Amino acid sequence: MTIAMVLLMACGSKQESPMTDGAPIASHQNMPGDSTRYGLACDGCTDSILVFLPYNSNRLDTFDIITAQQQHRIMGRPHIGDELAIMVNPADTAEALMVINMETLRNTWCYKVTPTLRNVQNMPERMRRRMMERIPDSLRQQWMTPREYSLRLKRDMTAVAMGGVRRQTTTDDMSPVEYPPIRRYTEWRLFNGRLILKADTIAGFTKEGDKPFVDTADIQLLRHDTLVLRFADHEQSYYRKP
C-alpha cells in the first residue's frame, strides 16, 4: 500500500523528476523477448501525448500517440496513476505504437454461449432442419437457454475462468443439447502487446497429457465495459461484469 501511494503521488505531481534518490520507482521483470514497457500514466496525458513514468526509471517519458489513436491502438483511455503497457516505435523512440491500460484489462469479462443439439454433427443438413422444425417451441426455448461464461484477469497475473461443465455427469449425457467447452485459464500476461493465456484442467494438465495449453490473443478493442480478443481461430467479444 505504501508503494502504491508513493507511485500515485509521483504521477500526480507535475515535476519532471518525482524521485530524487536516482533509483527507479519499482522493478518489473520482462519475459525474455518482451519489449513492452511498463509504468504509470502521469499528469499531462492528452489525446495526442502520453506522459509516462516507467517502472525501471525515475524520469518521465513523453510519447506521441497520434498515430496510435488514428489506428485505434489505444486500448483503454489512460488516467493518472493507471498502470500501462506500451509498445514503442523502434524507429522513433518518441512514438508509442500501442498503449494498453492494464487497470482496465484487469477485470471480470463475460460472454454468452448458446447450446447445440447433441450428436448432430454427422446428420445431413436437411435432416437436421427437419428435426429442429418438429421440436415444440416450448422445448426449444427450454433447451436453447444461453449460459454466461466469464474470464477474470487478476492483479497477481492469475486468471479464473467460470462456466461450462467441469465434470460430465449422467444428467449431462441424457441432455439433448450440449454447451461448448470452456478453456480453464489459470495465468495471463502481456507479451509484445499480445495477451498470453495459459490453460490448465482441474488436475493441472491438459487432456492431451503433460503440458498446459497456451493461447495467444490480439486485443482488438478495450473499453471500460467492452473487450474484444482475436484468437487464432475465432474472435470473442466480452462485456464487463459489475
Account of the 3D structure:
The relative contact order is 0.12. Mean pLDDT is 80; it is low at 13-23. The strands form three sheets. An eight-stranded antiparallel β-sheet has the order 10-9-7-16-15-14-13-12, with no helix packed on it. Strands 3-2-1-5-6-4 form a six-stranded mixed β-sheet. The protein is built from six helices and 16 strands. It has helices at 2-12, 66-70, 102-105, 125-134, 137-143, 170-174; strands at 37-41, 49-54, 61-64, 74-75, 83-89, 92-101, 108-113, 116-117, 147-153, 159-162, 177-178, 185-191, 194-199, 213-222, 226-230, 235-240.
Q: Strand arrangement, largest sheet?
A: 10-9-7-16-15-14-13-12
Parts with pLDDT < 50 across at least 5 consecutive residues: 13-23
For the record, give the distance between the C-alpha atoms at the N and C termini, rounded to a whole number: 24 Å
Pattern of helices and strands: HEEEHEEEHEEHHEEHEEEEEE
The overall pLDDT, averaged over residues, is: 80
**Helical proportion, percent range:** 10-25%
Q: Report the portion of residues in β strands.
A: 35-45%
Q: Counting H and I runs of at least 4 residues, what is the number of helices? A: 6
Q: Which class of secondary structure composition applies to the elements?
A: alpha+beta
Blueprint of the fold:
Elements: H1 2-12, E1 37-41, E2 49-54, E3 61-64, H2 66-70, E4 74-75, E5 83-89, E6 92-101, H3 102-105, E7 108-113, E8 116-117, H4 125-134, H5 137-143, E9 147-153, E10 159-162, H6 170-174, E11 177-178, E12 185-191, E13 194-199, E14 213-222, E15 226-230, E16 235-240
Parallel strand pairs: 4-6
Antiparallel strand pairs: 1-2, 1-5, 2-3, 5-6, 7-9, 7-16, 8-11, 9-10, 12-13, 13-14, 14-15, 15-16
